[in-house]
Amino acid sequence: MTQRSKLADRPLSPHLQVYRLPLTALTSIFHRITGVGLSLGMILLVVWLVAAAFGSGAYGIATEFITSPIGYLLLFGFSVALFFHLCNGIRHLFWDVGMNFEIEETKRSNVLVILFSIVLTVVSWYMALV
Questions:
Q1: How far apart are CA 128 and CA 130, in angstroms?
Q2: How far is Cα 42 from Cα 38, in angstroms, rounded to an integer?
Q3: Which top CATH class is 23-129?
Q4: Where are the domains of the chain?
Q5: Distance from C-alpha of 11 to C-alpha of 18, rounded to nearest angstrom
Q6: Cα(52)–Cα(34) distance, rounded to whole angstroms?
Q7: Does residue 64 carry a pLDDT above 70?
């Protein structure tokens, strides 16, 4: 038997399309993604502040963009990322002191992170729009 045929007979490892990631892994991945999203979202805030420093014309243009549908979508995504990253960061603080490492506690904290992220986002948008 040749080396090539030995390799062809070996099973392939499961791909991400086959393997179902646990919720803890998904929240970890999403925590990293939201961290990058928050960094990029800060650019919008800096542009808005710089526009305010340049005068009413630039500030008006920046405000017009932020209050457009695309601007609201970006702000909504930024707020979801902010609250998820905050809630998951608080969970990581508990983990840092050695709490909630049991599987059932971790599963419960996964759900709580997602639930609190949704609640905080909805409440903040409700307060801002009312």
A1: 6
A2: 6
A3: mainly alpha
A4: 23-129
A5: 14
A6: 27
A7: yes
Rg, the chain, Cα only: 22
> Could you tell me if 79 and 121 are in contact, meaning their C-beta atoms sit under 8 angstroms apart?
yes
**Residue 125 to residue 41: CA distance in whole angstroms:** 17
pLDDT at position 18: 74
Structure tokens at 100: 């909630």
Residues 127, 116: Cα–Cα separation, whole Å: 16
Q: Please say whether the beta carbons of 44 and 93 come within 8 A.
A: no
Q: For residues 61 and 51, is the Cβ–Cβ distance under 8 A?
A: yes
The size of the chain, in residues, is 130
State how far the Cα of 70 lies from the Cα of 26, in Å rounded to an integer. Answer: 27
Question: pLDDT grade, residue 19 (50/70/90)?
Answer: confident
